[in-house]
């Protein structure tokens, strides 16, 4: 990220370049993305002493231990930067949101439950040095445990930045962009989905001899944020000279939600006005034919059944 920032860092982050490169190479190997995982690769903490602090709760240390021995200062840095980054992300992504809605979108990204999920997915809970009373909360996943795991994630972010003053901010920017994307797509944009879109789309373009289908648009995937299934559906239109014409696609926590999202996108398709014009013309042709057949029926006194062009 091309931004100048004033940075403070401890003297223990100043090390020869060759040593930093060696640590980076070792850390990159140890943080490779697991096979089949949808999580982005975990960025390394380049300084081993900072890495130890990032996973050490103050409650496990003696009263004489220095402040830098626990993750509290790193948590402060990570929390502050993630708050700024989340605000910047939603501000850029949603130009039509008012401040209230921007705050709601930002809160989805930085709440404790979100960061706690990330910590668990990266196994931070297994690496952390925690007091026994907090460790005992792990099975309950209550507020204390969630808060601790959230703090741990913020501390990790602070540690990546502190251990790499030259590139740490850019590394975190790229990592969080990937981590947040499913949450932005599946939850924030859910507010923009029109749940009447399917009905509205049918009214606009359905007529005799046409059909709208909502086939799958790829296999069901797992959300990297909640571990839930994510469905992908597309909208296709056939008739009036079109054959399985793609109008849009969407994702959701169910096929119905994905269908709503796809139909919402379809209503914005640039070809839609042309399809609507053809549909109107076809409706007029059908109406004229029906009227003609009814008039012929009255004249003949027969039982002619109206036949519409397909």
Summarize the structure.
The protein has 310 residues and is α+β, with helices and mostly antiparallel strands. It has helices at residues 17-30, 48-54, 72-93, 99-110, 112-121, 124-127, 132-135, 143-163, 168-188, 197-205, 255-266, 272-300, and strands spanning 211-213, 221-222, 229-239, 242-252. Strand 3 and strand 4 form a beta hairpin.
Summarize the structure in words.
The chain has helices at residues 17-30, 48-54, 72-93, 99-110, 112-121, 124-127, 132-135, 143-163, 168-188, 197-205, 255-266, 272-300, and strands at residues 211-213, 221-222, 229-239, 242-252. Helix 2 (48-54) runs antiparallel to helix 8 (143-163). By secondary structure, the chain is an alpha+beta fold. The two termini are 57 Å apart. The protein has twelve helices and four strands. A hairpin with a 2-residue loop joins strand 3 (229-239) and strand 4 (242-252). Strands 1, 2, 3 and 4 form a four-stranded antiparallel beta sheet that branches. The radius of gyration is 28 Å and the shape is elongated.
């Amino acid at each position: 990220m091309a931004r100048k920032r004033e940075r403070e860092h401890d003297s223990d982050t100043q090390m020869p370049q060759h040593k930093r490169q060696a640590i980076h190479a070792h850390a990159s190997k140890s943080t490779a993305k697991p096979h089949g995982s949808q999580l982005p690769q975990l960025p390394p903490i380049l300084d081993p002493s900072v890495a130890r602090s990032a996973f050490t709760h103050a409650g496990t240390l003696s009263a004489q231990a220095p402040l830098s021995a626990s993750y509290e200062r790193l948590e402060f840095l990570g929390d502050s930067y993630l708050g700024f980054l989340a605000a910047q992300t939603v501000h850029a992504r949603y130009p039509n949101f008012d401040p209230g809605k921007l705050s709601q979108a930002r809160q989805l990204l930085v709440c404790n439950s979100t960061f706690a999920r990330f910590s668990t997915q990266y196994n931070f809970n297994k690496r952390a040095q925690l007091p026994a009373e907090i460790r005992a909360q792990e099975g309950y996943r209550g507020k204390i445990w969630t808060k601790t795991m959230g703090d741990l994630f913020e501390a990790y972010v602070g540690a990546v930045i502190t251990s790499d003053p030259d590139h740490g901010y850019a590394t975190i920017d790229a990592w969080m962009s990937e981590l947040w994307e499913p949450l932005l797509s599946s939850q924030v944009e859910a507010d923009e989905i029109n749940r009447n879109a399917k009905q509205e789309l049918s009214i606009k373009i359905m007529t005799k001899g046409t059909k709208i289908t909502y086939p799958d648009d790829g296999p069901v995937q797992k959300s990297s944020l909640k571990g839930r299934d994510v469905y992908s559906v597309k909208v296709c239109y056939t008739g009036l000279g079109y054959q399985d014409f793609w109008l849009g696609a969407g994702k959701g926590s169910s096929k119905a939600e994905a269908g709503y999202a796809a139909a919402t996108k379809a209503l914005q398709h640039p070809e839609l006005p042309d399809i609507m014009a053809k549909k109107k013309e076809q409706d007029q042709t059908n109406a004229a034919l029906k009227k003609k057949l009814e008039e012929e029926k009255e004249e003949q006194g027969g039982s002619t059944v109206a036949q519409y062009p397909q």
